[in-house]
Amino acid sequence: MPPSMTESSANKLTNGDVCHRTANGKKSSGRNGFVKNHCLFQQPQQKKYRRPSEKNNHVVHNASLYNKPFVEQFEETPLLVAVLTYVGYGILTIFGYLRDFLRNRGVEKCHVARERDEQKDFVPLYQDFENFYTRNLYMRIRDNWNRPICSVPGAKMDLVERASKDYNWTFEHTGKVVKDVINMGSYNYLGFAENTGMCADSATGSTHKYGVGVGSTRYEMGNLDIHEELEQLVARFLGVESSMAFGMGFATNSMNIPALAGKGCLILSDELNHASLVLGARLSGATIRVFKHNNMVSLEKLLRDAIVHGQPRTHRPWKKILILVEGIYSMEGSIVRLPEVIALKKHYKAYLYLDEAHSIGALGPRGGGVVDYFGLDPKDVDIMMGTFTKSFGAAGGYIGGKRELIDYLRSHSHSSIYATAMSPPVSQQIITSMKIIMGEDDTTLGAERLKQLSENTTYFRRKLREMGFIIYGNDDSPVVPMMLYMPAKIGAFGREMLKRNIGTVVVGFPATPIIESRARFCVSAAHTRDMLDTALEAISEVGDVLQLKYSRHHDFPSSLGPWSSAESLLLEPSHVKPSCHITN
Amino acid sequence: MASGQQWVLVEMVQALYEAPAYHLVLEGILILWIIRLLFSKTYKLQERSDLTEKEKEDLIEEWQPEPLVPLMSKDHPSLNYDIVTGPPSHKIIVNGKECINFASFNFLGFLDNERVKQKALTSLRRYGVGTCGPRGFYGTFDVHLELEDRLAKFMKTEEAIIYSYGFATIASAIPAYSKRGDIVFVDEAACFSIQKGLQASRSFIKYFKHNDMEDLERLLKEQEIEDQRNPRKARVTRRFIVVEGLYINTADVCPLPDLVKLKYKYKVRIFLEESMSFGVLGEHGRGVTEHFGVNIDDIDLISANMENAVASIGGFCCGRSFVIDHQRLSGQGYCFSASLPPMLAAAAIEALNIMEEDPEIFTILREKCKHVHKALQEIPGVKVVGEAYAPALHLQLERSSGSRDTDVRMLRSIVDYCLERQIALTLARYLDKEERFLPPPSIRVVVTIEQTEEDIEKAASCIREAALAILK
């Protein structure tokens, strides 16, 4: 393999659209120089990796591996915004301490549930600081999460109206229903969350036939014919030899990785991997090393070092190396650089575990996930994992791969031996929706949905970017994170959007880095253009009110313009004191 | 003193003049040498030998990983699961043969209960199947809140929290509280999901002998002595006892009243896993607390799945709000997983309705259990393990052949013999290498209220015949 392509050729391939940050002058000069080492991908000349804030993910290093432009953007946080965000957290923390002090003195009423008197002399169940964040930050904006819904989680949904009389410590249902809220939060990528139509009908049929439970594990007496049917279909859908389905997506990761790796094995995990992958890796007992998010240079360095140096202290060679990556990262909206990962894994003889929780069904011309999206061979991925929760509107997860792998899992997976098998109507929902996606129902419904999702994604992302918001992630990813940064804006954005009858997800620390709070939209094939326009209008309006249009790229080509404008917007008094927003 | 020093100094200067030139040169060189040593780079005893790129390439070329999974022999039993066609209810079709079900944990027969099905269907017509999101992000349905409320009321606790998978319930709950440095006392017979929860918590784990309160007290006393030695550490070290109500691996009950005594004596919290006993033990099916008449508030956390007696999917934890509410942000399987499909929650609610309306079913179940337990006595070569009122018993070999594989094969032959004669049984399956204390191989016999006396007699005589034929 020759040393990697240079950036300029990559840029050419993608029409120069990829390199948005060259103006910052952060590009290392060593990158374009010749390389002495034998790495597949160019290693940076300087010893240290880039600071996490300097995300260089939008640069394609090995364009020859890609069959289409790979455009991913992570616009840098404006410095002033970053500073103000820290100030915001500072103020919140100071107020938090003050209020804790008042609570201790009995001045402020304390709503936290108390330990029973009989157990007062036990070792406290929680350290006081553990709940500081919950008590003083989360509680202020708690109404933005766990909003109960009382309808199908489709393109529009009905919410149960809640009210709180004690500043979010407790909620009461007012008895009213907020009707027809546009749902930008559910992972309903292909719109299969439906209570009518083919899926619901077939699920009804299997409820009549089987009931809802199973009452045993797969290995004992819970291996129903419907499970076997599902697994054969999944294998066909993925283009792999065999597959196995599990009752919970989270557990698919946490209960199967321990069967695949163990002591003496090395797991290389992306820093932004989902909690379930992290838990599975931990439970396996293998050594875990983390590489920078989607950074192939970092991954290659870890791979080389691992093989060259072997296990720590004993220097024995590793038994095997397992790379854990996700298809679409749900908080970043980025797509894994799969062609490069596969090139690396082949060269270094590692195994690849690909978690397609968000990408299966949502990406690729046939809905086959990232492998389909990049036009790769599914056989190059050793372990294809995914969930049925999202695109299929059901629940559970699967693992697909070679026959030997699945046979092994059948006898060694924690899930197949100790956990109850999947509910029959849920299995049926997956079977029907998957057949629709594959066009085996003799309609073009599936193809239409896939096309609709892709169009909606492009449209929604383009519009948001044009409005001047900072949007993270890949242009083709239906997960669209929009940066809010400041803690006060998390709550304000969620509430303002709900006022306009749009349900969005807002996330902050600890799900994101502390200054990178964001709103997240999940585009669905069920969204009509009208709904998206309504949503976009509302987002723009709220964006103006809260001054969220941070982007310094499109409308301001010069480097001075955006700075002055950002400053003038941000120096308004309401934003210097973020706590004002959340206390009211 | 001062004059003495002066004298020495003078003498030294004098000595310098008097010293021969070669001596001075030598000293000078030595001083320079010392300075050089001081400023030169430190060196390691083991000279670092950085590998050249070529050598690294060779190493990478040379390295051969183990296969991803070891090869399995083609006749491994797990490659041929028994296939159930149709519903796994009282009458079950296993490998094409209609049998009476003595294998599914369908204790109360809710699996094909028409009321439960209807309720699930109504919910399906309203909400569809999936929730398309975790609880935090529009995955909380009014049905979930209702189910949590109902469970809390049913168990007479302040709060309940539901998980979408039975296995993940206790496995998520334990690490939500017990962290690195904390101490957990666990019964040796604890089920696999407890073991995984303990592993995820990274706490110190101390196993006590199954149901042996003296052994537990010994460990607690040891800890007390340890604490006196280091009181500062003891003040922040949380302690927990984790036990099962009705052990799935041994089919016996934990001595809960004794545990509660120990709890207050040694100030340890109790987590109780009730997957087997919820909806089974006690007058109203509230489980082992009701069975012993223990105040439920004395138990810090109760967890159970809704996959056995309730015959739905998922699990729940219940207890005081002070304890349970913490999981809403710290229970990994709660926060990071899609929520339970509403139709499964609705089915669980209906099952609770039936349990509340007709507590008689628990008495019937207990009678059946006793009947089965009695009918299985005195089968040659086989012993029944478990309490008379346990709904999932184990049949073990009286004398092991010495090899686990042979034992398993013999028991499997009994199961096959019964399957042929329309009695569906199953072996209790374990991951032999992963279990902390691997239980001996056994056949699971599950009692449900749907089994008639004839069914039970038939099953017992069938097992007896099989044992006579196979074990000789």
From TrEMBL, chain A:
<comment type="similarity">
    <text>Belongs to the class-II pyridoxal-phosphate-dependent aminotransferase family.</text>
</comment>
<comment type="pathway">
    <text>Sphingolipid metabolism.</text>
</comment>
<keyword id="KW-0012">Acyltransferase</keyword>
<keyword id="KW-0472">Membrane</keyword>
<feature type="region of interest" description="Disordered">
    <location>
        <begin position="1"/>
        <end position="31"/>
    </location>
</feature>
<keyword id="KW-0443">Lipid metabolism</keyword>
<keyword id="KW-0663">Pyridoxal phosphate</keyword>
<dbReference type="InterPro" id="IPR015422">
    <property type="entry name" value="PyrdxlP-dep_Trfase_small"/>
</dbReference>
<dbReference type="InterPro" id="IPR015424">
    <property type="entry name" value="PyrdxlP-dep_Trfase"/>
</dbReference>
<dbReference type="InterPro" id="IPR001917">
    <property type="entry name" value="Aminotrans_II_pyridoxalP_BS"/>
</dbReference>
<protein>
    <recommendedName>
        <fullName>serine C-palmitoyltransferase</fullName>
        <ecNumber>2.3.1.50</ecNumber>
    </recommendedName>
</protein>
<keyword id="KW-1133">Transmembrane helix</keyword>
<dbReference type="InterPro" id="IPR004839">
    <property type="entry name" value="Aminotransferase_I/II_large"/>
</dbReference>
<dbReference type="GO" id="GO:0004758">
    <property type="term" value="F:serine C-palmitoyltransferase activity"/>
</dbReference>
<keyword id="KW-0256">Endoplasmic reticulum</keyword>
<dbReference type="InterPro" id="IPR015421">
    <property type="entry name" value="PyrdxlP-dep_Trfase_major"/>
</dbReference>
<dbReference type="GO" id="GO:0030170">
    <property type="term" value="F:pyridoxal phosphate binding"/>
</dbReference>
<dbReference type="InterPro" id="IPR050087">
    <property type="entry name" value="AON_synthase_class-II"/>
</dbReference>
<keyword id="KW-0808">Transferase</keyword>
<dbReference type="Pfam" id="PF00155">
    <property type="entry name" value="Aminotran_1_2"/>
</dbReference>
<comment type="pathway">
    <text>Lipid metabolism; sphingolipid metabolism.</text>
</comment>
<keyword id="KW-0746">Sphingolipid metabolism</keyword>
UniProtKB/TrEMBL annotation, chain B:
<dbReference type="InterPro" id="IPR050087">
    <property type="entry name" value="AON_synthase_class-II"/>
</dbReference>
<dbReference type="GO" id="GO:0016020">
    <property type="term" value="C:membrane"/>
</dbReference>
<keyword id="KW-0746">Sphingolipid metabolism</keyword>
<dbReference type="GO" id="GO:0046513">
    <property type="term" value="P:ceramide biosynthetic process"/>
</dbReference>
<comment type="pathway">
    <text>Sphingolipid metabolism.</text>
</comment>
<dbReference type="GO" id="GO:0004758">
    <property type="term" value="F:serine C-palmitoyltransferase activity"/>
</dbReference>
<keyword id="KW-0472">Membrane</keyword>
<keyword id="KW-0443">Lipid metabolism</keyword>
<dbReference type="InterPro" id="IPR015421">
    <property type="entry name" value="PyrdxlP-dep_Trfase_major"/>
</dbReference>
<comment type="pathway">
    <text>Lipid metabolism; sphingolipid metabolism.</text>
</comment>
<keyword id="KW-0012">Acyltransferase</keyword>
<keyword id="KW-1133">Transmembrane helix</keyword>
<dbReference type="InterPro" id="IPR015422">
    <property type="entry name" value="PyrdxlP-dep_Trfase_small"/>
</dbReference>
<dbReference type="InterPro" id="IPR004839">
    <property type="entry name" value="Aminotransferase_I/II_large"/>
</dbReference>
<comment type="function">
    <text>Component of the serine palmitoyltransferase multisubunit enzyme (SPT) that catalyzes the initial and rate-limiting step in sphingolipid biosynthesis by condensing L-serine and activated acyl-CoA (most commonly palmitoyl-CoA) to form long-chain bases. The SPT complex is also composed of SPTLC2 or SPTLC3 and SPTSSA or SPTSSB. Within this complex, the heterodimer with SPTLC2 or SPTLC3 forms the catalytic core. The composition of the serine palmitoyltransferase (SPT) complex determines the substrate preference.</text>
</comment>
<comment type="similarity">
    <text>Belongs to the class-II pyridoxal-phosphate-dependent aminotransferase family.</text>
</comment>
<feature type="transmembrane region" description="Helical">
    <location>
        <begin position="160"/>
        <end position="178"/>
    </location>
</feature>
<protein>
    <recommendedName>
        <fullName>Serine palmitoyltransferase 1</fullName>
        <ecNumber>2.3.1.50</ecNumber>
    </recommendedName>
</protein>
<keyword id="KW-0812">Transmembrane</keyword>
<dbReference type="InterPro" id="IPR015424">
    <property type="entry name" value="PyrdxlP-dep_Trfase"/>
</dbReference>
<feature type="domain" description="Aminotransferase class I/classII large">
    <location>
        <begin position="98"/>
        <end position="461"/>
    </location>
</feature>
<dbReference type="GO" id="GO:0005783">
    <property type="term" value="C:endoplasmic reticulum"/>
</dbReference>
